[in-house]
Specification:
Elements (H helix, E strand, L loop, with lengths): L1 H36 L7 H45 L4 E8 L2 E11 L5 E9 L12 H7 L2 H5 L1 E4 L4 E8 H7 L8 E9 L5 E9 L14 H20 L13 H26 L10
Antiparallel strand pairs: 1-2, 2-5, 3-4, 3-6, 6-7
Helix pairs in contact: 1-2
Length: about 290
């Protein structure tokens, strides 16, 4: 349908030009018919040329006006495209996400990100219920958890390109206790309003129905990177226990090759002495040395 409409619009100038070009012919034919009815069957060359010149001048004037109008419209379209291109190059795009924490699937973080090409300013957040009615403070348990964060109460003054702000907001276990088991009934609708560096206003929206989380489970021991971090922490704690209270030095005995050779020589001498001593104790006494 859109392509058909564009084709119709593109054919309008040609149709207008054709109509204007046929006007002189129709006027001359009408003039001849009128003269024929009044008995004047001849058309003077001067009169005919005057009519043709006048009509041609009018047609050319009309075509010039149409051309000027089309040129001006094209110019306005080009200016509008340049303005839109400039606006897109400085346009921020603020997104809000609710995602699970690496610590465990019961913990949830909120992440506010600027995915756009420009700086976002004067960010404000508004909360609405299922009917689109603004939610007042202390009227919704879930929304109150978001309002504990200052950025959702007073807004954010500025967010740079690619900047991300992340914070823990709630736990499903605590939320289930506070809602008396109705943890899947909350409905979250956050509207964020912001502007670019030139003051152009934008709006994004996050809508989550917590019923969609019902039945979701997780296999394994959680996020592997978080598990690796815990293991490294345990290794560090064990090393600290071995080292003691010192945080800068580790007690280490260092031996060189000469020290080892001297130790081996001393050990061999000691073994030879012990061997000779043992042999002397086991040798029977000589008969000549026996007492008479």
């Amino acid at each position: 349908m859109a392509e058909l409409g564009e084709k119709k619009k593109s054919g309008i100038p040609g149709l207008i030009t054709t109509m204007l070009a046929t006007i002189p012919i129709l006027i001359i034919i009408g003039y001849l018919v009128i003269n024929n009815e009044h008995g004047n069957k001849t058309l003077g060359s001067d009169t005919a040329s005057s009519w043709v010149s006048a009509i041609a001048t009018v047609v050319i004037s009309l075509l010039t006006i149409i051309l000027a109008k089309e040129t001006w419209s094209l110019r306005l379209a080009q200016l509008q495209q340049l303005e839109e291109l400039k606006r897109e190059n400085i346009r921020p795009n603020i997104g809000i996400q609710i995602e699970g924490s690496p610590v465990g699937m019961n913990f949830f973080n909120v992440k506010v990100s600027n995915y756009g090409k420009g700086i976002a300013r004067k960010l404000t957040f508004e909360f609405f219920d299922r009917n689109g009615t603004p939610v007042e403070p202390q009227k919704d348990v879930l929304i109150d958890k978001f309002r504990k964060l200052a950025m959702f109460r007073v807004g954010i003054e500025s967010m740079g390109i690619g900047q991300v702000i992340t914070s823990y907001v709630f736990s499903f276990i605590e939320l289930n206790t506070e809602l008396a088991g109705d943890v899947f009934k909350p409905y979250l609708n956050i509207v964020v309003k912001f502007e670019d560096v030139e003051g152009n206003r934008y709006t994004n929206e996050l809508t989550i129905d917590f019923a969609q989380y019902e039945g979701i489970t997780e296999l394994g021991d959680g996020d592997p990177i978080h598990n690796i971090a815990k293991e490294i922490k345990q290794i560090r704690e064990h090393i600290q226990q071995v080292v003691g209270n010192s945080k800068e030095r580790v007690g280490v005995d260092i031996y060189s090759a000469q020290d080892r050779e001297e130790e081996t020589l001393k050990r061999n001498i000691w073994l030879e002495k012990q061997k000779l001593k043992h042999q002397n104790l086991q040798t029977p006494p000589d008969s000549n040395t026996l007492p008479q």
